[in-house]
Amino acid sequence: MHLVSGAKVLVMGILNVTPDSFSDGGHFVDESSIANQVETMLEAGADIIDVGGESSRPFAVPVTAAEELSRVLPAISLIRLRSEIPISIDTTKSEVAREALAEGADIINDISALRFDQEMIALVRATEVPVIIMHMQGTPSDMQVAPHYDDVVSEIKDFFRDRLAWAEQNGVARQRFIVDPGIGFGKTVEHNLTILKRLQEFTELGCPVLVGHSRKSFIGKLLGSGVDARDVPTAAISALCVSKGASILRVHDVEKTVQAVRLAEAIDGAA
Ligand code: PT1
């Protein structure tokens, strides 16, 4: 993976295999629609496909590991049959991550930053895959009740410094990690805007920065657009993230974000 600074920004396409997912709920659960969605993302030039079987949108309710596995394993195997594209597994459960890696996944994407499952750190230590750690205030079921920060960027950076130090104490080098400020996870519209404005500061942690802004409710609150009309605004934010040092963008509409990313990279590279 090209994650060093100056390298091409990577576009991570979202494959939700959750019947209750926030923006494409119920659309991609049967096998042929998963296959179509994967084909569309591959043709559009996705660099990574992120497979998730548990919704983490605001007020989502948890599912069991067995339920999550029954959703994600067939999707991973389907992708692997047609492509060698890197696959990330979006889960907070070590059992789901372990079986997903065995099925062919290459990256762990843990929105709890290894906090929800005490056994996740041992799995991470036992493997060599990159690990995405995300910041969240609260849990998906309560995170949007009353988010509060004195300085949202400083507090998220402190959180990552703590998590990276803890991981190093537990035998996992910081070079393994990708950091994600967690847009929409226990944040008001203003918090999300401040994170995006000051995104460059997260690169000071020395890890690649991932942003997951796609189709989120802060876009709807700012523009009044419904969830099915947020891909152009998402691409606009993607371009801004590139100029502020992001390494990976997690999005639904890969085609529009690839266009935005290539233009932002060309502008960054101009004399
Ligand atoms: C994310 C992310 C994720 N987001 C990573 N993984 C979701 N690494 C799932 C809303 O406000 O940003 N980074 N996995 C989806 N979660 C949300 C959160 C969806 C908030 C919607 C909202 O609309």
Name some characteristics of this structure.
TIM Barrel; 8 strands; globular; disordered N terminus; binds pteroic acid
What's this model, at a glance?
The chain has 271 residues and is α/β, with parallel strands linked by helices. The chain has a single domain (10-268), classed as Dihydropteroate synthase-like (TIM Barrel), CATH 3.20.20. Helices cover 41% and strands 13% of the residues.
Tell me what the structure shows.
The protein has a single domain, classed as TIM Barrel. The protein is built from nine helices and eight strands. The chain has helices at 31-43, 65-82, 94-103, 120-126, 152-169, 189-197, 217-223, 231-243, 254-268; strands spanning 10-16, 48-52, 87-90, 107-110, 131-134, 177-180, 210-211, 248-251. Strands 6-5-4-3-2-1-8-7 form an eight-stranded parallel β-sheet. Helix 1 (31-43) packs across helix 2 (65-82), helix 2 packs parallel to helix 3 and helix 8 (231-243) runs parallel beside helix 9 (254-268). The longest helix has 18 residues, at 65-82. The protein starts with 9 loop residues before the first strand and ends with a helix. It binds pteroic acid (PT1). Pteroic acid is lined by residues 22, 52, 56-58, 90, 109, 111, 132, 134, 180, 182-185, 210, 212, 216-217, 250.
